[in-house]
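Worked example 4.2. Below are the chains of a multi-component assembly; read each line carefully before continuing.
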Amino acid sequence: MGALKRVTNKKDELEEKTCKNGQIKVGYQGVEGSFSEQAMRKYFEEDDISSSPFETFEDVFQALKDREISYGILPIENSSTGGIGEVYSLLRKYDFYIVGEMCIKITQNLLGIKGSKLEDIEEVYSHPQGFEQSVEFLKDYPHWKLIPYKNTAISAKYIREENSKKKAAIASKRTAELYHLDIIQQNINFNQDNYTRFIIVSADFDVTTDADKISMVISLPHKPGSLYQVLRYFAENHLNMLKIESRPILDRPWEYFFYIDFEGNLQNPHLKKAIDQIEKKSNFFKLLGNYRKGRNINQ
Amino acid sequence: MGALKRVTNKKDELEEKTCKNGQIKVGYQGVEGSFSEQAMRKYFEEDDISSSPFETFEDVFQALKDREISYGILPIENSSTGGIGEVYSLLRKYDFYIVGEMCIKITQNLLGIKGSKLEDIEEVYSHPQGFEQSVEFLKDYPHWKLIPYKNTAISAKYIREENSKKKAAIASKRTAELYHLDIIQQNINFNQDNYTRFIIVSADFDVTTDADKISMVISLPHKPGSLYQVLRYFAENHLNMLKIESRPILDRPWEYFFYIDFEGNLQNPHLKKAIDQIEKKSNFFKLLGNYRKGRNINQ
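Applying the procedure described above to all two chains together yields the following structure tokens:
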């Protein structure tokens, strides 16, 4: 496999990726207090990092391309609402690799300015996923006007600036601290087992010796049994598939890219054999990374 | 299979589903001029229908449950941006069936009040999918404020009411006619092969004799090779899988429901055998319908 350039351990890898002053440059989408920023702090908690917020997911990829940052951190899936299509597409579009993973427990909270109460509220601001995750709570307040915003943390910041008891945001407890807001009601997300999985992306393919998860994206000939053939290579080599996600192929309506995650380390010869077989059967094949599986972390 | 109650042809089925005055009651989400309404008109073009708009996807399912309507029509997938998670979840939550399908070509257009020009615009209103599908066009106007709305047609209606040259909507040509707006720029969606697939949902399981597509949702034991085992039954019985969509299982983070579409009619004995085998291997199994595949229709 040409993509496999080297096998390092995490320490070596970080040494190469630091600035002259020893800091690692990391980019995320959103603002301070966003779930991406929290995931970044947790993943790099033992490292000296300098972080840069970006407005869009693609801006993070562009900064990696321009070598402005060494790592980007991006949400790829929520355990209640599913995969984040745009990040899947960007992973295929840019020639970068997943080098790590972090799963963060997400709680949504209703935040208002000091002294505001449930009965004062007329308008609520949040990211559409904030509304979607709080849908059961919101059903009790059908008169509230819901206004979608780019980011839960930006909506909390806006509430602080507006300084009106009529306006509330759905966001994290961390943003309540940051913007000096009251938590009017906590944990309003209907699914109390609500995690977001973040990936750490790098322009270089790095495999740490403790890597136990592999991601790839493929497209297959449009004929009966082609996906079955691919899954057969996993089964025959006793490889555990963790996830399959279908995403549209733009110029071929109702045909799909398959993003497949499975357990393993590329140093395993069974796995190398299965991957070689899959690559041969695919119209499109890209290895997205071999990294350490992220545990579920409570905030 | 207990779910298979009867096999009818479309004419018989419609005769049973009419009101006393001969009209078929159909519900859709959105307002007049929405893509759902257009898909409904096209699917039922030879029938006498009375249609009801509903505010949310779930309202359509609730109206079916209350027998207020005989059919609901809902978008389930876009060929550029992928599956619509909420509709997949509602299909599993309610005990209803897919009885038909319609694929409509979607074009997005920039609409303004009479005489408005590109250089006048400061704010643009649309459904988030309207923005997402027009992302390449919008990159040339980074100063425009993008304001997400529930529905493309509602945003067009709002532009008409506001009557300001500074405001524009991204919506269909049909809404330009309905609300007497100018098309400032047509076909601004980046993917010119952009279709949305709609499903027709009924509270009763109906199989027409010309049905050629089957949908099911399953969950599988969380162990290596379980999805492979299921796909093997398709391959061994020469059944063509059309699509697999993974959706989260709420209380089990990183486990999935698989929504599988494949070709066939339930009267085929090979297919019945494969389905029985799959049902036995599944933790959860629901047959979602056997219906006629929708062609891609240009508007």
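Take a moment to check your reading of the output against the notes. Residues 269-281 of chain B form the longest helix (13 residues). Chain B has ten helices and 18 strands.
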